[in-house]
Design brief:
The chain has 99 residues and is of the alpha+beta class. The protein has one domain: 2-Layer Sandwich (Alpha-Beta Plaits). The chain has three helices and six strands; from the N terminus they run αβαβαββββ. The strands form two sheets. It has a four-stranded antiparallel beta sheet. The chain has a two-stranded antiparallel ribbon with strand order 4-5. Strand 4 and strand 5 form a beta hairpin. The longest helix has 11 residues. The relative contact order is 0.25.
Length: 99
């Protein structure tokens, strides 16, 4: 497995209607590196966002979809998504404020 630094683990936040509704329960959704473990994701979130304490991390792998353009067939990339639940005493993540 590659040596991942905490700033390489989280790729981008997922902004959907469902993920926005989960923020009321202090759950935030991110696209993460496919080789990242739950412990690495927890460590990355706590280091990137000041005053945040992670309670639980759920991950899911999504296979790439088959796409066609004419006779050419290809696949999109595999992705890994993480839903991070914060502790009750934790601060909210400011990045998502006002969305």
């Amino acid at each position: 497995m590659a040596d991942l630094k905490y700033y390489d683990v989280i790729l981008k936040p997922v902004i959907t209607e469902k993920s926005m509704n989960l923020m009321a329960e202090k759950k935030y959704t991110f696209l993460v590196h496919p080789a990242a473990t739950k412990n690495q994701i927890k460590e990355a979130v706590e280091k990137m966002f000041e005053g945040v304490k992670v309670k639980k991390v759920n991950t899911m792998l999504q296979d790439g979809k088959t796409k066609r353009r004419g006779m050419t067939i290809g696949r999109t990339a595999k992705t890994k998504k993480a839903i991070v639940q914060l502790a009750e005493e934790s601060k909210d993540i400011e990045f998502f404020e006002g969305m």
